[in-house]
Automatic annotation (TrEMBL):
Family from the record: Belongs to the TPD52 family.
Biased composition, class Low complexity, residue ranges: 156-168
Taxonomic lineage: Eukaryota, Metazoa, Chordata, Craniata, Vertebrata
Coiled-coil region: 7-34
Protein name: Tumor protein D53 isoform X3
Length: 180
């Protein structure tokens, strides 16, 4: 327990400390205002200070051993990944090149065989069946030229006859649609 006299001394000391703290706060505030005024006169801003602080902090981080080890590890991993992607890219390019060379060979073979295919018995048979079907359709629709004619003529006259029988429009219109 404290005596009355000790309590009075502590209260006096407490009051004195509070006064000193108040005085120090006032002095500190005055110094801070003075600091801001000087920085403004020198053209220094809060942003510049932040940049300087950040640069210094970043430099401090970069000089740590943990950062250096991490940087080395990531650099090594990046090199490995680059090599792996390069190998994959090379493999894909090679595969596409192989596919392209095969497709070019196929198209050449295909174009060479077209004349032979047109002269084949199967193609001739198919062509005859198409002409027979067109002639038959023309006869059923009511065409006048039963003597055959070229495939284009037969197709054109069939289209005209079809347009007339369905009432879809005039023969001139059907002819125009076919020519487009």
């Amino acid at each position: 327990m404290l005596s009355e006299e000790e309590k009075e001394e502590l209260k006096a000391e407490l009051a004195q400390l509070e006064d000193e703290i108040t005085t120090l706060r006032q002095v500190l505030s005055a110094k801070e205002r003075s600091l801001v005024e000087i920085k403004q006169k020198l053209g220094m801003s809060l942003m510049n200070e932040l940049k300087q602080n950040f640069s210094k902090s970043w430099h401090d981080v970069q000089t740590t051993t943990a950062y250096k080890k991490t940087q080395e590890t990531l650099s090594h991993a990046g090199q490995k990944a680059t090599a792996a992607f390069s190998n994959v890219g090379t493999a894909i390019s090679k595969k596409l090149g192989d596919m392209r060379s095969h497709s070019i060979g196929y198209s050449i073979r295909h174009s060479i065989s077209m004349p032979a295919m047109r002269n084949s018995p199967t193609f001739k048979s198919f062509e005859e069946r198409v002409e027979t079907t067109v002639t038959s359709l023309k006869t059923k629709v009511g065409g006048t030229n039963h003597g055959g004619g070229s495939f284009e003529e037969v197709l054109s006259s069939t289209a005209q006859a079809s347009a007339q029988s369905s009432g879809a429009g005039t023969p001139g219109r059907a002819q125009q649609e076919l020519q487009c």
